[in-house]
Specification:
With 142 residues, this protein is mainly α. It is 87% helix and 0% strand.
């Protein structure tokens, strides 16, 4: 995690940093304010690490945070996508069932009257849909 990412995620990261390095106070976090060099210096001072040890520890923790955060986001994205897919499948199945029962239960004359009513109610949309169908059919014949 580079300096920009540390600064950008500072408010979210403060709680995680507090669990990793409990010796740091609220005043320390205010002073750090997302600057990695300040964090390194405080870790050196509070824990007696060398600069290299502090940087390695910080980089390790931040990379774990980033990996955990990415895993959580990927899992949440997958759950959301699966839920939407289930909902869409259910909606499509209901629509197909409804259309199937409509076709089974009605005569051609009733369906023609319904289509005429729809065209009268939505004339411009019907013209555009008809033009689109004609275009599609023409493209298929080429």
């Amino acid at each position: 995690m580079n300096q920009d990412m540390l600064s950008g995620n500072w408010n979210q990261l403060r709680g995680k940093l507090r669990t990793w390095w409990g010796k740091l106070s609220d005043d320390d976090f205010e002073w750090i304010s997302g600057q990695k060099d300040r964090l390194v210096g405080l870790i050196q001072e509070k824990y007696g690490y060398t600069r290299d040890q502090a940087e390695q520890d910080i980089d390790r923790c931040l990379s774990e945070y980033g990996a955990d955060d990415m895993k959580a986001k990927a899992y949440a994205f997958g759950e959301t996508a699966a839920n939407r897919a289930r909902g869409a499948f259910s909606s499509v199945a209901d629509t197909v069932d409804s259309a199937s029962s409509y076709l089974r239960d009605n005569e051609w004359e009733t369906m023609a009257a319904d289509l005429r009513d729809i065209i009268r109610k939505y004339p411009w949309q019907s013209i555009l849909l008809g033009a689109g169908l004609i275009y599609w059919i023409a493209r298929q014949r080429r």
